[in-house]
Structure to design on (142 residues):
């Protein structure tokens, strides 16, 4: 009869030697021809070598993508990258200023036409200038 003693998880320690051993254990990867069962390729791998290989591939791919964006004209197509022709950037700024001023003029004209329309229909409230409260000015003798 076997007796098992349960330990709380906080008491269980991770053995670093077993972790390293698992990373270094050797495995064989065999690629076989399905029809003839002939071994085409045979690899001896460990978890550590697979991890290092995949990490290296990731770093190389990231490096290639960054190099592609930095050293080719693709950087001009990235929005907000800050790259672009100085003349083109100046033209964009001028167009933005011109567009803003056209929008402001359109708002003023729209307000003018709406007020004119109200006056012509007689819906504009009458302003009594007698009730205006003007600030008192002091006479300053120099």
């Amino acid at each position: 009869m076997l007796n098992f003693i349960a330990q709380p998880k906080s008491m269980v320690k991770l053995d670093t030697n077993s972790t390293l051993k698992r990373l270094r254990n050797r495995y064989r990867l065999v690629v076989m021809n399905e029809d003839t069962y002939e071994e085409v390729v045979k690899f001896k791998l460990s978890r550590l070598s697979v991890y290092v290989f995949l990490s290296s591939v990731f770093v190389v791919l990231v490096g290639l993508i960054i190099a592609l964006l930095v050293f080719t004209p693709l950087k001009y197509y990235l929005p907000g990258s800050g790259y672009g022709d100085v003349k083109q950037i100046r033209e964009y700024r001028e167009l933005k200023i011109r567009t803003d001023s056209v929008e402001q003029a359109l708002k003023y004209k729209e307000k003018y036409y709406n007020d004119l329309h109200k006056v012509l229909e007689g819906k504009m409230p009458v302003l009594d200038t007698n009730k205006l409260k003007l600030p008192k000015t002091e006479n300053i003798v120099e």
Q: What stands out?
A: The longest strand covers residues 39-46. The longest helix spans residues 86-121.
